[in-house]
């Protein structure tokens, strides 16, 4: 059974700092890995999706990497801003199970 | 604008009552999903459907039921058999199981 772990559970940084969020998974038989942002009481907003054949994806200040062999993905946020404060979740789409498994998320606070 | 609409935003259930959560999408997506989110946790899959008139149980299907009679609609019924229904319920859709998932804004269900 796929298990997805996100470390740390919470992170607080000063504005302007670069930061890395981590996601690890136990089964490398995946279609893709997707990073989401969730604001309090809201649904999820898709940030980046990396297909299993890709190594990284970039969107603006965000860069996500994928290392299937080690079961790891990172989300790099450059020059963080207070508006980046939210919970970030990763989800892995399993080829075997045909569904996605989510981590518990990392709650990021960027202080002005 | 294309998107996913969940209603109602807030819902209250009495003991012994079944309630139905609505999810409608106009993205022409084949796949639809229902997730449950408890405080401080990630998402857990309840049911999913890859095509009309077909659906599969997720990890926590007990006490829930779904139907998929139309491509655009995937309603979730929380039955009286679900003893701990208080949670945030999220609906998602995608073109296929290897494509990005798009989420609605969620329904918060509480017990009276």
Quickly list its features.
heterodimer; A: 112 residues; mainly beta; six-stranded mixed beta sheet; five-stranded antiparallel beta sheet; 60% strand; B: 112 residues; seven-stranded mixed beta sheet; four-stranded antiparallel beta sheet
- Chains forming the largest contact: A-B, 25 and 26 residues
The helix fraction of chain A, in percent, is under 10%
Q: What's the N-to-C terminus distance of chain B? A: 35 Å
Cα separation of the termini of chain A: 41 Å
Number of strands of chain B: 11
Main structural class of chain B = mainly beta
Number of alpha- plus pi-helical segments of chain B: 0
Strand residues, percent of chain A: over 45%
- Helix fraction bin of chain B: under 10%
Report on the structure:
The complex is a heterodimer of chains A (112) and B (112). Chain A is an all-beta fold. Chain A contains no helices and eleven strands. Chain A has strands spanning 4-7, 10-14, 19-25, 30-38, 44-51, 56-59, 62-67, 72-77, 86-94, 100-102, 106-111. The radius of gyration of chain A is 13 Å and the shape is globular. With 112 residues, chain B is mostly beta strands. Chain B contains no helices and eleven strands. Classes of the chains: A mainly beta (112), B mainly beta (112). Chain A binds chain B through residues 4, 6, 31-32, 34, 36, 41-46, 49, 51, 89, 91, 93, 98-105, and chain B through 6, 33, 35, 40-45, 48, 50, 56, 58, 88, 90, 92, 97-98, 100-106, 108.
Topology readout:
The complex is a heterodimer of chains A (112) and B (112).
Chain A: E1 4-7, E2 10-14, E3 19-25, E4 30-38, E5 44-51, E6 56-59, E7 62-67, E8 72-77, E9 86-94, E10 100-102, E11 106-111
Chain B: E1 4-7, E2 10-13, E3 19-25, E4 31-37, E5 43-51, E6 54-57, E7 64-66, E8 76-78, E9 87-94, E10 102-103, E11 107-111
Parallel strand pairs in B: 2-11
Antiparallel strand pairs in B: 1-3, 3-8, 4-5, 4-9, 5-6, 7-8, 9-10, 9-11
Structure described in brief:
The complex is a heterodimer of chains A (112) and B (112). Chain A is mainly beta and 112 residues long. Helices cover 0% and strands 60% of the residues of chain A.
């Amino acid at each position: 059974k796929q298990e997805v772990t996100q470390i740390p559970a919470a992170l607080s940084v000063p504005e302007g700092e670069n930061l890395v969020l981590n996601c690890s998974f136990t089964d490398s038989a995946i279609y893709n890995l997707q990073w989401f942002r969730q604001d309090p009481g809201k649904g999820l907003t898709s940030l980046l999706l990396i297909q299993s054949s890709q190594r990284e994806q970039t969107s603006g200040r965000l860069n996500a990497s994928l290392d299937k062999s080690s079961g790891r993905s990172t989300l790099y946020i450059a020059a963080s801003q207070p508006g980046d404060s939210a919970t970030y979740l990763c989800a892995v789409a399993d080829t075997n199970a045909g569904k996605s498994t989510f981590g518990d998320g990392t709650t990021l606070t960027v202080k002005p | 604008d294309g998107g996913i609409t969940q209603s109602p935003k807030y819902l209250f259930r009495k003991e012994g009552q079944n309630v139905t959560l609505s999810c409608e999408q106009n993205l022409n997506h084949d796949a639809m999903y229902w997730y449950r989110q408890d405080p401080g946790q990630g998402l857990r899959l309840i049911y999913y459907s890859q095509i009309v008139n077909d659906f599969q149980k997720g990890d926590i299907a007990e006490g829930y039921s779904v139907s998929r009679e139309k491509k655009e609609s995937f309603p979730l019924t929380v039955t009286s058999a679900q003893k701990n229904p208080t949670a945030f319920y999220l609906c998602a859709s995608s073109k296929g199981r290897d494509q990005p998932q798009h989420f609605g804004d969620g329904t918060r269900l509480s017990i009276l």
